[in-house]
Amino acid sequence: MKTITLVFGAVYGMLSVILGAFGAHALKKILSVERLESFETGVRYQMYAAFFLLIVGYMLKFDTSSQKWVSILMIAGTMLFSFSIYGLSMQDYFGMNLKFLGPITPLGGLLMIVSWALLIFYVAKNRI
Description:
Shape: elongated
Radius of gyration: 16 Å
Structural class: mainly alpha
Largest sheet: none
Number of helices: 4
Number of strands: 0
Helix content: over 70%
Order of helices and strands: HHHH
């Protein structure tokens, strides 16, 4: 689980830089200001998750299920949160109706929040 956490952290970080640059340059010309701001929100939270996963990957031993869930929930939550925002931001450009992604975004956010809460609980309980 440690390796998976660190790999996802690195991949999320790399994709954040790529997508951030893509948004700042290519998408600036084709998306409305509102859609571009949403896209940038997805990128920003994906980078936060990348840092979270890299730090947690080095900090935790992943020898308990609660430690594993800290990572799993952040990985899944970020995927649901950020990637649904990317789809919603790009739906007009793609000419597709992706409004079904709307309810997925807050679900991803909730998973991210629960991951943070589990980390807080773990740290408080184990005083690390």
